[in-house]
Amino acid sequence: QVQLEESGGGLVQPGGSLRLSCVASGRIFNPNTMGWYRQAPEKERELVATVNSFGWTNYADSVKGRFTIFRDNQKNTVYLQMNSLKAEDTAIYYCYFGTRAISWGQGTQVTVSS
Questions:
Q1: CA separation (Å) from 108 to 4, 7, 54, 61, 91?
Q2: Phi first, then psi: what are they for 87, rounded to 5°?
Q3: How many of the other CB atoms lie within 10 Å of CB of 37?
Q4: C-alpha span between 82 and 69 (Å, rounded)
Q5: Where are the alpha helices (DSSP H) in 35-96?
Q6: In which region does residue 62 sit, left (phi positive, over 0), alpha (psi from -120 to 50) or beta (all else)?
Q7: Rounded to 5 degrees, what are φ and ψ at 88?
Q8: For each successive 10 residues of the chain (114 residues), what is the average pLDDT?
Q9: Contacts of 28 (CB under 8 A, 6+ apart)
Q10: How many angstroms separate the CA atoms of 89 and 92, rounded?
Q11: Are 11 and 85 in contact (CB under 8 A)?
């Protein structure tokens, strides 16, 4: 079982930036994939970005060029740097950990509003 602790959500104005962090603990197997999904009100959960143990990344088209995902393998931590935020980025962001099984964080709210 892997536990995920997220931090860094909040309220930001359009055009602003936020950084999300997620620390994994417990039975961590390598290689693995960590990342972020998000769910807006009345919408399905969708991929934002993922990064695997080798540093290979995958982004949703809607965030390419604005968001950057990176990880610190020594700290079992994944980060999501979000720049040029838009109102449509408003959602609950969930940390994802995938290896032999999938684990999800509790979610952190990101609200982009003036």
A1: 12, 7, 26, 22, 8
A2: -55, -35
A3: 21
A4: 9
A5: none
A6: alpha
A7: -75, -5
A8: 95 98 94 97 97 97 98 96 98 95 96 97
A9: 2, 76, 99
A10: 9
A11: no
